[in-house]
Amino acid sequence: MSTSQGKIEELKKRIFYTFLLLLVYRLAAQVPVAGVNASALASYFSEGGGGIFDLVNTFSGGAFKRFSVLALGIMPYITTSIIFSLLGEVVPQIQEMQEDSEGNKKIQKWTRYASVLLCCIQGYGMAAVFEGFRSPTGVPLINEPGMLFRLTTMITLAGGTMFLLWLGERITEFGLENGVSLIIFTGIAVELPAEFFQKVTLFRNGELSGWNLAIGVAIIALSLYIVSYIESAFRNIPVQYAKKVVNNKVYGGAQNLPLRLDTGGVMPPILASSLLAAPATLANFVPATSPLKPYVDTIHQSLMPGQLLFNLVFALLIFYMSFFYAPIQFKTKKVSEMLQKNNAFVPGIRPGDKTKEYLDFVLNRVTFFGALFLIVVCILPSVITGSHSRFEGTSLLIMVSVAMRVMLNVQTFMYSDKYETAFKSRGKYNGPNRRF
């Protein structure tokens, strides 16, 4: 078997392994938690009772509204990872550990322990909240509420999230892309056919006009194009490396340092959505007899998706989170130090602190336009169509970015085979004593 055929076979195995593990994830997402009335749960959410849980349900692939063993999804691990990333910017000891390989392993271990703790807290709270829910006909969602149900649900949901984390690590090791990203991508993608058939059903029943349906499809197509274009856009910073001669070849010279336009990626909308979901979640813990209940319900209704206050607060949070998260992704101080160590500099800018100030200036300008892009993509489509869709906003950003990275990984895999073949064909000898 030639090298090229071996590479193709390995790529096929990686694709097959990825799809196999994602299938296992989807099968596990159908297993419900013990003690839940499935029919009453479906009736409750069909009446729109789960509006406040749309973010969690989207990232769990519908497992939340089925109260599956994977109802928490991978979000607790993502939350703890973000917390440790933020702590690395504040606590110098954690920052030093993140830069060291052994210290990074310890942080990964702490992140998993913190994820288990967060899963237990969220699982217990979810069980307690669902005990108070009833279907529109008055049937309770939980057959036998009590402490035993809460503890078993807490352990089950924590185990489900840890199983997802293990599954993601296997996909990362033997698959095509980061396993956590692919799990989130799959959870969003499996909900899209239901959204499509729902729109078609509304159109057939006359509840949705053909004009509105055409506008919605056009906005989705335009948003998809804009997101794909912006996600691949870079601001190149010219960098001059010192020239040196090695084996009669000249290395160095003028190069570019790429800086993504959307530096923060999809994290600013996710963080903003999480903060907006907090008041709605807290509203469920306020007793109905409390004097604060009317005020809490008013705030809750004002912060529902589609409301004016929700859009304004969401836009401000995205704007703030973009400037907050971009420096974490692109560390200007570290980049300036790396350039100085490699005898490189930005033309017209002195190495060291001046280079850091220049990079901060460019990063702030790029982040400003990136934040405007995120606001437009996440808010404008729902404002135009007048409805909330899974094809818009955060979900669309995640799907496009993950799909582009998967395609890039496949292309890199194939190009590496071509480079390896071309390199081996240029050996010093062509006979039995050839170098390669």
- Taken together, the total number of domains comes to 2
CATH architecture designation of the largest domain: Orthogonal Bundle
Strand content: 5-15%
Encode the helix/strand succession as letters: HHHHHHHHHHEEHHHHEHH
> Quick one: CATH superfamily of the largest domain?
SecY subunit domain
The CATH topology name of the largest domain reads Preprotein translocase SecY subunit
Uncertain ranges: 425-430
For the record, the CATH class of the largest domain is: Mainly Alpha
Going across the biggest sheet, name each strand in turn. Answer: 2-1-3
What coarse outline follows from CA principal-axis ratios? globular
Keywords: Cell membrane, Membrane, Protein transport, Translocation, Transmembrane, Transmembrane helix, Transport
Transmembrane segments: 66-90, 110-127, 147-167, 179-197, 209-230, 270-288, 308-328, 362-384, 396-416
Membrane topology: Multi-pass membrane protein
Pfam families: SecY
